Amino acid sequence: MDYFLNEDQKAIRDLARKIAQERVMPVRAELDEKEEFPWGPLKYLADVGLFGVYIPEEYGGLGYGSFENCLAIEEISRACIGVSVSFAASGLGSYPFLLFGSEEQKKKYLPDVASGRKLAAFGLTEAGAGSDAGGIRTTAKRDGDAYILNGTKQWITNGGEAELYSVIALTDKAKGPRGASAFLLEKGLPGFNFGKKEKKLGIRCSATRELVFEDCRVPKESLIGREGMGFIVAMRTLDKTRPGIGAQAVGLAQGAFEAAVEYARERHQFEKPIISFQAVSHILADMAAEIEAARALVYAVARWVDTNPKDISRYSAISKLFPTDVAMKVTVDAVQIFGGYGFMRDYPVEKMMRDAKILQIYEGTNQIQRNVIGQSLIKEYASKPH
User: Fold this and answer.
1) Residue 386 lies in a domain
2) CB 315 within 8 A of CB 304
3) CB 282 within 8 A of CB 360
4) Are 370 and 263 within one domain?
5) 176 and 45 share a domain?
6) What's the number of domains the chain is made of?
7) Residue 385 resides in a domain
8) Which residue of 104, 136, 190, 317 sits 20 to 30 Å from the alpha carbon of 4, by its own alpha carbon?
């Protein structure tokens, strides 16, 4: 379909597609096998300025928005979401100080993020605080002109590789979630260390580590916004970035679909290409319809997010929920079309199916997205007359 992209948007899409095809596809299997962080592909993305798509020009970025960022994420994801999540997670880590940071924080740190010189990461999840983000236990105690952080964050994408970390910690435990605050930390601070790189089912080239804080002293200037704003910072950030997860799902599903179509045209059984069999062509037809519906949804929500509406949580959740369920189904169906070959590592759909599962889990499980959508509906319709 023609989504009426302007010339700048087409340029961003085409540039990301070129790098995905030329720099990501040739190495994706090796990166997955070796579980090697994709510094090579990320450098190419940095060199052409794609890390700065959503960052304003005054801070060294290109000055576009969530929609243009989604275009780039989708194209990279067609090749490998292990690479695309490493790229996109830098946006997740930088949105807190882009949205709520002081002018000094923005001027100091955003140019390095926009240029790709420094990756960012987002530290919210803990062992006992995944879907229940309000259950965090990491603390930040005020001590003169600094805060002392103690605790552990779990499953942090870009952990150990990133130079900048947006971290949510409790400054007032008595207030529960309302006592959480957000901090911007630099790698290398005394008392700030990392756990081992996790061994994962999918997205194996991306780095997932614990962030460990042991009496980590950070200057008061590291506070993002004000004390007590931590969960507002986190939730607004996720509202902005969840369409990017939808874009990952669309790109991954598109890549799996294209591989399945190509294989179905070449594979012959009973002296015919298997794409000519109705059983196969109907699977492909459903894949095509679901992917296009998911893409239209992601594009619409991302464009709407860029208009800065007040309440975007419901639609942001929908733009994550539907496409990621589609990606899981499409990749499973792609493996089915490949048959026995689809189960082998020599073909890309095996990896795509493994990678797809995380899309239904990170940045809020799809069950949590349904909660967000349902609560929004209850709130909206409770005030309307029967």
Assistant:
1) no
2) yes
3) no
4) yes
5) no
6) 3
7) no
8) 317
Burial group, residue 235, by CB count within 10 angstroms (0-12, 13-18, 19+): middle
| pTM over the 0.70 mark | yes
Please give the Cα distance from 183 to 211 (Å, whole number). 13
What's the rounded Cα separation, in Å, for the pair 226 and 11? Answer: 39
* β-bridge pairing 164-170 and 120-123: parallel
Structural domain boundaries enclosing 268: 231-379
Instruction: Reply yes or no on whether the pLDDT at 179 is more than 90.
Output: yes
* 8-state DSSP, 210: E
The yes-or-no verdict on residue 280 having pLDDT over 90 is: yes
67-89 pLDDT, tens per residue?
999 999 999 999 999 999 999 99
Residue 265 tokens, joined? 């045209």
Helix (H) or strand (E) holding 218, with range, is strand 208-219
Residues 218 and 358 reside in one and the same domain:
no
Tell which of 92, 118, 144 closes a domain. 118
Answer for the pair 100, 166: CB distance below 8 angstroms, yes or no: no
pLDDT tens by residue, 115-135: 999 999 999 999 999 888 889
Judged by DSSP in three states, 155 sits in strand
Q: How far apart are CA 265 and CA 278, in angstroms?
A: 13
Residue 163 resides in a domain: yes
Judged by DSSP in three states, 125 sits in: coil
Which of 167, 201, 228 is the C-terminal boundary of a domain?
228
Residues 54 and 163 in one domain: no
